[in-house]
Amino acid sequence: FCEMRRDWISPDVITYGETIGALARGGQWQKALDFFEEMQRCHIAPDAMAYNAAISACENSTHWRKALTFLDEMPKCQVQPNATTYNLVIKACHQGGASAL
User: Model pTM?
Assistant: First the structure.
């Protein structure tokens, strides 16, 4: 990201989505969620892949409520949740101790 910005290359939704996913897989859930928020501040509309990556970051923490918030937000932003989305939300809720849902 730093090199892209240094070279005046603007990150797009794919760049953000892949970065968020890599951070989530690397256990850096807070940084992943920060990148998701940055993407929105930069007026880059998240797609299903970016939402799924952010939800995956919630799965790796105890932020199951945030995963549900993302799920609720998706249709409002004209992004259709898919099977991966639902699986990730279920995992986030289960791992976060919300299995009573």
Answer: 0.87
Instruction: Write out the two tokens for 86.
Output: 């639902």
CA 68 to chain CA centroid, nearest Å: 12
Instruction: Please give the chain's pLDDT, 101 residues, in tens.
Output: 556 666 667 889 999 999 999 999 999 999 999 999 999 998 999 999 999 999 999 987 788 999 999 999 999 999 999 999 999 999 999 887 765 55
Give one DSSP letter per residue of 39-51, joined into a string: HHHTT----HHHH
Q: Which two tokens stand for residue 57?
A: 């970051």
Q: Is 82 exposed, middle or buried (0-12, 13-18, 19+ CB in 10 A)?
A: middle
Are 68 and 93 in contact by the 8 Å Cβ rule? The answer is yes
